[in-house]
Design a protein that fits this description.
Elements (H helix, E strand, L loop, with lengths): L10 E8 L2 E8 L2 E6 L6 H12 L12 E8 L2 E10 L2 E7 L6 H6 L1 E2 L4 H8 L3 H6 L4 H29 L2 H35 L4 H51 L9 H36 L11 H5 L5 H4 L7 E3 L6 E3 H91 L5 H84 L4 E15 L2 E15 L5 E4 L6 H18 L8 E4 L7 H12 L4 E6 L1 H4 L7 E3 L3
Parallel strand pairs: 3-14, 3-15, 7-13, 13-14
Antiparallel strand pairs: 1-2, 1-4, 4-5, 5-6, 8-9, 10-11, 11-12
Helix pairs in contact: 3-13, 5-12, 6-12, 7-11, 7-12, 8-11, 12-13
Length: 653
């Protein structure tokens, strides 16, 4: 696996009013930086500041401040973001380092509440988390585009193959025409010799002979024009017949489509918008709950027992009193509620936080259902739009065909009128030639007529020869293009294969990354009787919205060994807190690597590692160091002591 290039530039941060920070300036050099200190020393707040500078909105504004800011100077560029309080929410503004921080929030910023990190312990859908940043719909659209291009090329190649079979017949036809032309030219040469011989025997004035020859030339030219007009009429008739057949085919296609595809689905946009609003509301509720949970967990961890100021409506409906009333108790292990001054049990606070976590899980499930319903409606809407586009396209084609039919029928009428005029002209010229005939000229006139007819036939054959040669040349050009089309099709097939296997490849890579690094981590950390933790890709039938579909899932396996050396499969619930934390972190690392974040996200953040013992934390940090330009870790002083002395340490924030 690739690792980030070595850089030497120090990242400079200026922070104001983020988390618990009033104001600070901190330099972070490349490599490992440890934020070391006791609880409530703003270590997590500074990590949130880094996230905000990267572009994330997962940061909190200082409780007594209306505005906050963070500025990052890195590689000659300055990135600044501001946080402004707006009622019960915080508005983020400014440009962060990342255009889209979603993937980094999942797999690079590994604070305690990070979803990828916590997914193992919560029993989340691991495959869904890994694939969340992948725009599957965009991949499907790209596949459809490539398939359409491939089909167009296949149609063109099929046409070329069909035309290729015409070449032998056309070559034979061309040779026949050439032979016929040669025969006619030989016959004409003989006829002209007879005319010359006959002219010597005819006593006639030169003027009469020239007039007769002029009429014969005019007659030949008029006959040639008449034949050409007849051919044009035949061509127009064939084109009109073809257009009418195409019109009939399109009308049949049109009958198979709904008359008003989008009109039948006018409600979709409203339903989609409602689901989007619901999704936004759920996301906001989940985010608010997460912030509330994180805030109170930090208070408990830091022994600063400021409990919940408000709960969501669901929590409040479960009690006749206020949230504070629920926390009242008389045990020895008690604290003072910051909202009302009442004494409450610590266990009650923890129970309340646990209920909030359960409520968050319910909201996450509801959000997943809404997303599924939204995708179903979007698919229905896309199908309706596609049918509408097809109908409009067919109607445009029909309109074009009607215009072309009208134009060709007008041309046909004109050609028929022209044919009548030329036919009359031929009859008139033939009559004039007959008037010029005499007994003395009868034989020579007959010879001239025969020669005239031969010249006309030669002209006609030469026109046929030109048409056949052009057709052969056209097919040969098509055959020359066939090789380019096949190369283009091969490229499209490669792209199709890449797109079709992209999802499968990401899944396979994620499993491979997790299994490889989990094996290495367990070997390094040497947990007692824990042999292996690994993910298996399996196909299962699951429900998506209202349908059942076959879907890949990630099945997490845990293998332990008894004292007698017998291996058995265990469950996540039986992992120690330290083992669960390490597993979650390695899963997040797998996502970090499979989505190539080491190429785009310079910072990886680690926090809340207290469940892991100091020596193992040091080994974990050393392992993660290889994959990030800047690895920033928040540790208690006793845990930080296990790290190498060369590691950069920040002790005051």
């Amino acid at each position: 696996m690739s690792t980030p290039e070595s850089i030497s530039e120090t990242a400079e941060f200026e922070v104001e009013n983020i988390g618990g920070i009033d104001s600070t300036q901190i330099s972070i050099p490349p490599g490992v930086t440890v934020l070391t200190g006791k609880n409530a020393t703003n270590r997590t707040s500074f990590l949130q500041s880094i996230m905000a500078a990267m572009g994330s909105n997962e940061a909190t504004l200082k409780g007594d401040a209306d505005e906050g800011r963070v500025q990052l100077n890195l590689q000659g560029e300055t990135y600044e973001r501001t946080l402004t309080r707006a009622g019960n929410s915080v508005v983020f503004d400014g440009d962060g380092y990342l255009d889209d921080p979603e993937v980094a929030d999942l797999f690079a910023f590994l604070l305690e509440t990070n979803e990828a990190r916590q997914s193992v312990a919560r029993g989340d859908d691991l495959r869904e988390i890994i694939m969340r940043p992948v725009d599957i719909e965009d991949i499907k659209n790209r596949i459809r585009e490539l398939e359409e291009q491939k089909d167009d090329i296949n149609d063109e190649l099929a046409t070329i193959e069909d035309r290729k079979t015409d070449i032998p017949e056309l070559e034979q036809r061309r040779q026949q025409i050439q032979d016929q032309i040669q025969d006619k030219e030989d016959e004409l040469e003989a006829k002209e010799a007879e005319i010359d011989e006959s002219n010597q025997d005819v006593e006639s004035s030169r003027e009469d002979q020239e007039e007769l020859e002029d009429k014969l030339d005019e007659l030949r030219s008029t006959r040639s024009d008449l034949e050409s007009t007849r051919r044009q009429i035949e061509t127009q008739n064939q084109s009109i017949s073809s257009l009418k057949q195409e019109r009939s085919d399109l009308e049949n296609e049109l009958e198979d489509l709904p008359e008003t595809p989008m009109g039948d689905h006018q409600h979709l946009e409203t339903e989609i918008e409602q689901l989007r609003e619901k999704r936004q509301t759920l996301n906001s509720q989940i985010s608010d709950l997460q912030s509330l949970i994180q805030y109170n967990e930090e208070r408990l961890e830091d022994e600063d027992y400021e409990v919940l100021e408000t709960l969501d409506d669901t929590e409040q409906s479960d009690s006749n009193g206020s949230p504070t009333d629920e926390l009242l108790g008389n045990g020895d292990d008690s604290v003072t509620c910051w909202t009302c001054g009442s004494t409450v049990e610590r266990d009650q606070i923890e129970d309340t936080v646990e209920r909030l976590q359960e409520r968050r899980q319910d909201l996450v499930q509801e959000l997943n259902d809404v997303k599924s319903d939204l995708e179903d409606l979007k698919a229905t809407q896309r199908e309706a739009k596609q049918q509408q586009n097809e109908r409009e396209q067919i109607e445009r084609k029909l309109a074009d065909i009607e215009d072309e039919l009208e134009s060709r029928e007008t041309q046909l009428d004109s050609l028929k009128s022209q044919r009548e005029e030329l036919t009359d002209g031929v009859e008139t010229l033939e009559a004039e030639v007959d008037d010029l005939e005499s007994d003395d000229f009868e034989e020579v006139l007959s010879l001239h007529k025969e020669a005239n007819q031969l010249e006309f036939e030669i002209d006609s054959l030469e026109s046929d020869l030109e048409d056949v040669s052009e057709e052969i040349e056209e097919i040969e050009d098509m055959l020359d293009r066939a090789d380019d089309l096949r190369d283009e099709r091969d490229e499209l097939l490669e792209q199709l294969t890449d797109e079709r296997t992209k999802i499968d490849q990401i899944e396979a890579d994620a499993v491979e990354e997790f299994n490889e690094h989990m094996d290495a981590m367990l070997e390094i950390l040497d947990y007692e009787n824990l042999d292996r933790i690994w993910i298996e890709r399996v196909e299962q039938t699951v429900r998506e919205g209202r349908q059942k579909v076959d879907k890949t899932v990630f099945d997490l396996h845990i293998v332990r060994t008894t004292e007698n050396g017998a291996a058995y499969e265990d469950t996540v619930e039986h992992l120690s807190e330290s083992e669960r934390e390490v597993t979650g972190l390695i899963f997040a690392l797998a996502g970090y690597l499979v989505h190539d974040l080491y190429e785009t996200v310079p910072f990886m953040l680690l926090d809340s590692l207290e469940a892991i013992d100091s020596d193992r934390i040091a080994q974990l940090v050393e392992y993660f160091e290889d994959y990030a330009e800047y690895l920033v870790v928040a540790l208690l002083p006793e845990d930080a002591q296990a790290l190498d002395d060369s590691v950069n340490r920040v002790t005051a924030i």
